[in-house]
Design brief:
12% of the residues lie in helices and 39% in strands. It is mostly beta strands.
Length: 143
């Protein structure tokens, strides 16, 4: 069941609401940026994300295929969410679960985690429910 969470960066300049169903799973990826930043996120549709404040405080970083827009607070540097637009998937948001201010830690501990092989470029398909598949054998889910 979806629940509305409030999220923010460290300094609070960037704030948003996200409607998330943790029972549908969370994601950890092995691509270079997710590995270095130890990102743990959920993927939601654009109808489930609302930026409340701080649009002018955001700066963007893109690399490789430039499908994902990694957004950071200019003040504190925290990457609390991002978005992407994929030909097959349409627009989506990635919300960092550790930036959801009102997250119940017991609820988060019960959420399934899917490990995505983003290093080989298969992250978007799995996050959209298209995996695991024979093309992505390194993906595994824990409950």
């Amino acid at each position: 069941m979806k629940k509305t969470y409030v999220g923010s960066c460290h300094c609070g300049a960037v704030r948003y609401e996200a409607d998330v169903d943790l029972s549908q799973g969370t994601y950890k990826c092995n691509c270079s940026i997710c590995t270095k930043a130890r990102l743990w996120h959920v993927v939601i549709g654009p109808e489930d994300f609302r930026l409340l404040s701080g649009e002018s405080e955001l700066t963007e970083y893109q690399f490789h295929t430039k499908q994902l827009h990694h957004l950071f607070c200019k003040r504190c540097g925290v990457h609390s969410f991002g978005w992407g637009d994929d030909t097959d998937l349409g627009k989506f948001y990635t919300v960092k679960v550790n930036c959801l201010d009102d997250m119940d830690l017991d609820e988060l501990a019960r959420a399934p985690i899917t490990y995505v092989n983003g290093r080989e470029g298969r992250g978007l398909q799995v996050a959209a429910g298209r995996g695991p598949s024979p093309l992505n054998p390194s993906v595994r889910t824990e409950r």
